[in-house]
Amino acid sequence: MGKFLCENGIFVLNKEKIAKSGIHSCVCHFFFVILQPNCVGILNSTDMTTTSKVITWTSVLAVLALAAFIFIKFCFVYSEGVNEGDINYFQKEGFIFKTYEGKMIQTGLKSTKVQGSIQSNEFKFSVVDERVAKQLNEGANTGIKLHWKRYLGTLPWRGNSQYIVDSVYTAAPVNVKSINL
User: Which residue range forms the structural domain that includes residue 90?
Assistant: First the structure.
């Protein structure tokens, strides 16, 4: 492999050095610039071989695809909505990242096995904002509406659930009149 020289603070790489050193010259170029911070690397696209161009563009596309995947998985809001019910539990937990985790019980007539029976649905959620956590602690014994956002992945500092509650509404009491069947 040929030696790469830094002349007057500029790293020079020409076709002869690429031809002698092969594909690895591009990798060496990046390491050389990192190891010598006062030296600015110059590598024109006309100096690159076809194989070097393919490797470079493939690497760039792979990095962009990885960035897009990470954004969609952890930062993109997949859905959002509102759930109403009673808070079953709400606590702060975690070893390193202390997050608020809770479970809401939603009652309803949704049983598919026995017609007319009552079934409760559980809604597990996480809370990031301290203000929202305080509101949940204050209104734990009343009916509460939670506005949430769903992400496709979880992050340790955001909680254990894909559902992140960002606001709390106190549900108005409903007057239930007797129903004649």
Answer: 77-170
